[in-house]
Amino acid sequence: MMSPAFITSRLSIRLLIMMMIMIVTIMMSPSSTSDAIELTELSPADGLTFEKDEEIRITCDYDLGYRDPITLKQNGIDVVTMTYSRSSYKFLQKSSIKGFTCQAPLHTSEIWCTKKNTTCSDATSYSCSLLGIAVSGQKILTVRSGIKDVDYTEESLNFNRHSGYLCRANTGLVPGSTVTFEWKVVTVAKSYDGTIKKKLIHTKEDEITVPIADKCYSEISSFYSCIPLRDVEFFSYIECSVFGQTQVKPNDRWWKRRCFSGSGVANSKWVLVVKLILLLLVVVISR
């Protein structure tokens, strides 16, 4: 029969072995964040615009002592895998998906990654990983809200309702949010002493509700009718501001004629002329 001391000794050894296994397992498993690798840059920092020449740039900084494969993760999925080349003395790209490419400059501890032709799927989280060792903290790439353009528009011949200026913008705000467009009509004149003076003629605030969209951003717009400008003798430019950005549309004589008379008004005048001619013909024939 085993003595109590022997049983206690065996239990202590077994407990010690289990603790050692747990410690080794924890040390070998990837940590959620680590100084061994870090995502130091994710741009554009103010968000994606999906413009033609836009490019995502990502920098991963790793401990030079490691030679384990490095991966770039998008939303938790490996999009690039880099493996160490002993002949080149640096990490080389082994595989990539979704248009991402990475390179490792010599004598640095950085991995540089880029992607062009951005899409809504790129507005998500990113991290870097030393395979089997550590995973960096995540950084989020969002969608930037910004103004697109402002231009004269005339959707129909009805001048009173559809002639004016249209200001367009994109936003990544949640549907149902409100966005305020600010309009200003300004005249610029030179005084006798050569001083340039600006005069604010008309202002307008237009609150727009962000609609539901089938993509990661919504397209919104504000319309400034020509009607408030009908009694204005002259104005130099009209400007639209939203999301802290402003675009200006200069007004020259051609634009002034369009906004002050409108093709609808011009056409209505011709209609009146034709009607008068027809009326005169009827009178002449009836005689």
Task: Record keyword descriptors for this entry.
single chain; 287 residues; alpha+beta; Immunoglobulin-like; 42% strand; Ig-like domain-containing protein; signal
Provide an overview of this structure.
The protein is of the alpha+beta class and 287 residues long. The chain folds into two domains: 37-140, Immunoglobulin-like, CATH 2.60.40.10; 146-258, Immunoglobulins (Immunoglobulin-like, Sandwich), CATH 2.60.40.10. Helices cover 22% and strands 42% of the residues. The protein has four helices and 17 strands. It has helices at residues 4-28, 159-162, 253-260, 262-286, and strands at 37-43, 55-62, 70-74, 77-85, 90-96, 101-103, 110-116, 125-130, 134-135, 139-140, 146-154, 163-171, 178-190, 196-209, 218-225, 237-242, 245-250. Strands 3, 4, 5, 8, 9 and 10 form a six-stranded antiparallel beta sheet that branches. The longest helix is centred in the first third of the chain and has 25 residues, at 4-28. Residues 21-33 and 261-272 have low confidence and may be disordered. This is Ig-like domain-containing protein. It comes from Octopus bimaculoides. Keywords: Signal. Residues 1-36 form the signal peptide.
